[in-house]
Amino acid sequence: MAEQLPPEILARGDLLKLGAAAGLGFAALPLVQPAVPRARVARTPVPLALAPLPGVLDVYINEGYLKMVDDTLVYHRGFGSRPTDIDDENPSLCMEPTVITKDNEVVPSRSYPIGAPLPPRGTPTPVGPDPANPGQYLIRRNYWASYFPQRTVIAELGSTVCLRVQNRLNKPHTLTVFEAGPDGADLTTGAIAPDSVATLEFPCPPPGTYIFADPTNAPVERVLGLFGVLVVMDPEHQWDIAEDGATFERQWVWICHAIEPRWASMEASGQTVNPTQTRAVPRYFTLNGRSGFESLAITFNEDLNLASEEETLISGYPRQVDVRQFGEGTEAGTLRGGQLVRLVNPGIVWHQMHFHGNHIWTVRRDNVDWPRHDGFVDAKGHVVVQQWEDVVELEAMQRKDCIIPIKRPPDAIDPVWFARTTDWVYPMHCHAEPSQTAAGGLYPGGLVAHWTLKGPNPGATQ
Predict the structure, then answer these.
(1) For residue 377, is pLDDT > 70?
(2) 60: three-class secondary structure by DSSP
(3) Of 216, 267, 221, nearest in space to 75 by CA
């Protein structure tokens, strides 16, 4: 289980949990300068990569500086795919997406299922118009691959996950996969000494979404960037959350993060942050590693825009959705369901993910299926039952699986719906207002995205 963050750690904890009604940002916060190491402990770099081994995924604990949305450089640590040092201009601080097959092959891949057709710019195209529902489409079933962001490992049920971890830093670090062991136990390498290697090998856990991170001095190391996501898929049910679970057209992984530059600056200078004394006031917020105009794919960098569209910005063609079963279509080989969004929060800020245009349907929390009937109120006062939600609350270290329906918005009257000629684009933003900002008031420069209901596409065949 994730550690309970003492309330005094968050200097403005109440602010971070407030919804949009608060109307507050970080404009009053003092400016934070780029983190610059001042008194680093001398050490000998370990320049060589580990010799590859069959069935083994190599992970490197690196450090370096990443550019924020306002061009500030902030010190980070991370689980990388290649060895780099602190002065590298392109440090490897996020693992590249990788698939571990049921045959224990380790395959670098941004998409899954391997070999499935790639949706153009991330958008699956339909079979063709739905004759029974004008303006809507028949959606391909069990056809399209999904793109995954950095920090994601996809493992197939039946595989053995083998992580070989090299600690390239001058303090001990750990890699722990939370709740992936028997009876939900954590699996860990234990402390890895500087310039040392440890191996963590375990049977693939049940289908679901798992967080791995460094729990050392929690939550400091994961705030600095030492975290990632393990997605487990059943190879016999590659378009289902799990066997007998909801079916989807394609899936998306949204990884939320909050960055605290003061903690980063202290650690970069050789200090050790005491999170109860130096309270967290995050200054940057990311979704799949990007903020603001970068996560919205409106930059001058077309490669960056394309990656955001493929990995983050949900899109699809409208279809007639039946929430009673989220699967079968009226035509053979078609789908009545929507798309799956795996919301993952390895950070310390509670988020309130709000989708405009359509509500979304929450089906799972922390790999536990929510009931369709006979719901209940949990110990924290949350209603636990599958339902339409306008805002999905996402606590620290929590994961939620939701279906976004990609359907005609309920308030789109016929004259408007049948007159449309272009895509309809709807924002997604966090109702905890500080996460929309960056650098003390750059709005919207934080955790934002959008989703697109594609415009008319008569005669689509791919």
Answers:
(1) yes
(2) strand
(3) 267
Burial of residue 221, with CB atoms counted within 10 A of its CB: 0-12 exposed, 13-18 middle, 19 or more buried: buried
The three-state secondary structure class of 309 is helix
Per the rule left: phi > 0, alpha: psi between -120 and 50, beta: everything else, 206 is beta
d(CA 434, CA 457): 39
With a cut of 50, say whether residue 30 has pLDDT above it: no
Are the CB atoms for 283 and 348 separated by under 8 Å? no
Mean pLDDT calculated for residue range 45-71:
91
What phi and psi values does residue 138 have, to the nearest 5 degrees?
-85, 130
Rounded CA separation 223/123 (Å)? 32
- Cβ partners under 8 Å of residue 242, min gap 6: 206, 207, 208, 234
Give strand pairing partners of 286: 257
Q: How many residues does the chain have?
A: 462
Contact (Cβ atoms closer than 8 angstroms) between residue 81 and residue 96 = yes
List for the chain the helix, strand, coil content (%; round to 5): 10, 35, 55
Asked if residues 75 and 35 have their Cβ atoms less than 8 Å apart, the reply is yes
Q: Which DSSP helix (H) or strand (E) runs through 255?
A: strand 251-259
How far apart are alpha carbons 226 and 242 in whole angstroms? 28
Distance between CA 430 and CA 232 in Å, rounded? 27
Q: How far apart are CA 262 and CA 274, in angstroms?
A: 12
Give the C-alpha separation, 328 to 210, whole Å: 28
State the average pLDDT for the chain: 89
Contact 173, 62 (CB under 8 A): no
In tens, the pLDDT along 338-366 reads: 999 999 999 999 999 999 999 999 999 99
**Spatial contact of 291 and 252, defined as CB atoms under 8 Å apart:** no
Report yes or no: 245 and 236 within 8 Å, Cβ to Cβ. no
CA end-to-end distance (rounded Å), the chain: 44
Q: What distance in Å separates the CA atoms of residue 404 and residue 246, rounded to the nearest whole number?
A: 12
**How many whole angstroms separate alpha carbon 7 and alpha carbon 287?**
24
Looking from the CA of 8 toward its CB, the CA atoms found within 13 Å total: 5
Q: Do 176 and 61 meet the contact criterion of CB atoms below 8 Å apart? A: no
Going by the DSSP 8-state scheme, the letter that residue 10 receives in this structure is B
Q: Please provide residue 304's backbone torsions phi and psi, each rounded to the nearest 5 degrees.
A: -65, -40
Q: How many CB atoms lie within 10 A of CB 172?
A: 14
Any idea what DSSP says for residue 231?
E
Token pair recorded at residue 290: 């990007």
Task: Please name the residues in contact with 281: beta carbons below 8 A apart, sequence gap of 6 or more.
Answer: 10, 11, 12, 26, 29, 260, 262
